[in-house]
Recover the amino acids of this structure.
């Protein structure tokens, strides 16, 4: 007779009985072919209604753990496809996971503020999508993403960036890092140039894929043509709209020079990484390279990691027409890397105007953040010992500190105070004449209190 | 004075007014600094309450389109970061997207049935996750995936596959295709062997990444050691548990031979692709290669594409300990490619027992499907002119047709009847002695009516 402990039940009794019997079957306590007690005797023995036992048995039957023989009773099935294993402890091996140092304040990154993620709208839309688009959700997505998301992105690019784009030029993927890999497959193994100073992670991403990645010199207008020429690269991966970490926005004249560079070589391309254009805080926007490119030389990339949340893995690129054709010809066998559920949710979020509202709200929020940190720097007395270099875009500026301490010394002293700060010089990818005393201040995610603490600590460093 | 057409309003009036004014600002009809009508006069003029106008103005203020000067009124803001562009038509270029031929019945694939996706539970859990795990959802996931999902997968592998795995050995990614790319980066550019016959897509995936991919001969027990030796490959990508399309399950003896092959060379590895082990319909399960591998030579891969839906892009691999360490050391800079929202939803789906229930339900469903199609083949009189080769696993079997027609002729005749069928010979990756007259019959997604039609058409082909 089965006896289970009915004292510590949390939830419906029938589920508890079901689980107990299943566990006994899986662990071999109950053997294949063994007869289970009748409903009535099981019920009487434990002071439970026969309906409850019936429900538990029905569940076990529907999942194939037991079977019934008419007028004979219930028997344990020979479980096919399952291995009976004894209850074992969890496995633990010595796998060393690099630990990231924890800081109380982090002003180093190009991160965003995620506290303002529009949870209620997102939840509402995703529920809508799940109840009203069941068929679409189960239909395999084209490699480039579902059409309604690509259409929503094209509409957004038109109204927000003045870009005229066919949805079929758009390829949606699980993050820009993934899309870089697609580009490498599309363009072949060429020499790539990235900006110096620039984003070290790009070197690692290209390096991991066996790409020869070189560094192109920048001046105050962004990457230079002689800089690109010198690398011998075919593909220039650049951030002309808001460079990280310098904050430089490439002026129109330089944009045309760079386009001319691309046009001069048949296999040359530009990857225009427009990672945070949504958060331009002031000043006239400059048309994207993609918009002014008449020669199909520019691949435009953007991501919802910055504008929504880095934990939603949706980015996209816009391919020139001939590359879009190449993509469909050569790479249609790939599956899209973003789930339909999130593609349709995002599509509706954009097309119903919520994305624009969110961006507007966040832009105002970041403007206030910038005012706050400037106020905090002023209040600390620091403002007289430093200069601020910014171009009114994005979520950070550069602070020039009037100090004879090396950048490493400044970083180390602030680390003592729980502050993570990075110098511009950390972003130079080559040794040499790297600008000292410039520090990145990302203010996106600090409270007013944090800002005071950070400003105070900076002040002490300058003493 | 602003005048808008209030006849065709769909939704709240204040939103309509808000949208009209915003459009006028964006298109330049309303210029920066221009004064808007007072709430009262706007309201009176259009027979609307001032509260409605107030709401519209408030929305515009909160989004930064207009501003208010105390006691003076409302003014159009200088919109920063937005480009005023005239309304334009949609762009359309000639981008040729390869069209897939539509068939009424498709028995060719290794697809699944998605009608039974557990929408209500999935919706419930994803709503739970969004209301109760907001912080977790915004916290950037480790490269390998969030711990609670990896823990849930480890628990599932233990109870379902008898595999003892540390969650830190598990790497979650947006589809197996993506994970193959990770493996290539992890192992370096080696020679890979895939099974012949086998999955053509693998050739394309490896080819796109510049990998030298060769074909290893199979016999009735699966891939052979001489076959692997002959390729000169270092990495064997194989499906020992249920090979597609042959359906072969590699017996234990061959498994040990293959492991010995891997052990004999330092850089040798086995990728064990276990894409549909959940749907083993009968027979004793054979332990995975991963479980019996004592030399850290096996990378185990599986996906939720088959067990849940191909439109949810979540797959995972289990790395041997030394490769897990290498992964964390070399590739921690990558972002995880699966969104937190779906990672947490799936984690809860598994850990609350819904995944197991779903699999059990689907297994019963597929067993019924198999019975139905066998019945339909019998009823059509076809069963006497064909043989069935299957091993009780997965969602397809091989049908041997007693015909002198070539495989291409059979395929073409059935195509005429709207049926997509593929021969085993289509899956041979090399020319030569390829078995004729074997056809894949995937019964996962056919109705009983479909089955009758397909059986009838097959019968006619044999006349």
């Amino acid at each position: 007779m089965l006896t289970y402990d009915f004292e510590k039940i949390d939830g419906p009794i029938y589920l508890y009985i079901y689980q107990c019997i299943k566990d006994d079957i899986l662990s071999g306590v109950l053997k294949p072919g063994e007869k289970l007690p009748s409903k009535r005797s099981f019920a009487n023995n434990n002071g439970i209604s026969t309906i409850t036992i019936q429900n538990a048995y029905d569940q076990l039957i529907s999942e194939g753990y037991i079977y019934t023989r008419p007028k004979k009773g219930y028997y344990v099935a020979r479980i096919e496809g399952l291995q009976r294993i004894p209850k074992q402890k969890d496995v633990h091996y010595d796998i060393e996971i690099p630990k990231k140092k924890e800081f109380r304040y982090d002003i180093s990154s190009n991160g965003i503020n995620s506290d303002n993620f529009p949870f209620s709208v997102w939840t509402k839309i995703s529920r809508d999508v799940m109840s009203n688009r069941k068929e679409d959700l189960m239909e395999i997505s084209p490699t480039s993403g579902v059409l309604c998301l690509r259409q929503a992105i094209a509409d957004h690019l038109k109204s927000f960036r003045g870009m005229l784009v066919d949805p079929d030029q758009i390829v949606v993927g699980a993050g820009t890092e993934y899309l870089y890999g697609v580009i490498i497959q599309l363009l072949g193994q060429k020499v790539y140039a990235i900006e110096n100073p620039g984003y070290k992670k790009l070197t690692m991403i290209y390096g991991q894929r066996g790409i020869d990645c070189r560094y192109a010199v920048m001046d105050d207008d962004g990457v230079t043509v002689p800089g690109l020429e010198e690398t011998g690269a075919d593909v220039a991966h650049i951030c002309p709209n808001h460079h990280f970490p310098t904050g430089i926005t490439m002026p129109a004249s330089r944009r045309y020079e760079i386009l001319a560079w691309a046009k001069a070589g048949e296999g040359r391309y530009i990857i225009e990484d427009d990672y945070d254009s949504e958060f331009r805080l002031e000043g006239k926007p400059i048309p994207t390279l993609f918009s002014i490119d008449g020669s199909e030389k520019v691949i435009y990339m953007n991501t919802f990691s910055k504008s929504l949340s880095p934990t939603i893995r949706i980015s996209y690129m816009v391919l020139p027409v001939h590359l879009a054709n190449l993509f469909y010809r050569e790479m249609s066998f790939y599956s899209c890397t973003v789930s339909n559920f999130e593609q349709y949710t995002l599509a509706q979020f954009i097309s119903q105007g919520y994305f624009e509202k969110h961006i507007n709200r966040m832009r105002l929020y970041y403007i206030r953040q910038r005012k706050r940190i400037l106020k905090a720097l002023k209040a600390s007395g620091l403002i007289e010992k430093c200069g601020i270099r910014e171009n009114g875009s994005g979520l950070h500026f550069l602070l020039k500190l009037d100090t004879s301490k090396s950048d490493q010394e400044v970083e180390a002293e602030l680390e003592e105070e729980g502050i993570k700060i990075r110098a511009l010089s950390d972003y130079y990818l080559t040794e040499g004449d790297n600008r000292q005393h410039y520090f990145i201040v990302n203010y996106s995610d600090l409270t007013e209190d944090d800002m005071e603490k950070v400003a105070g600590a900076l002040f002490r460093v300058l003493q």
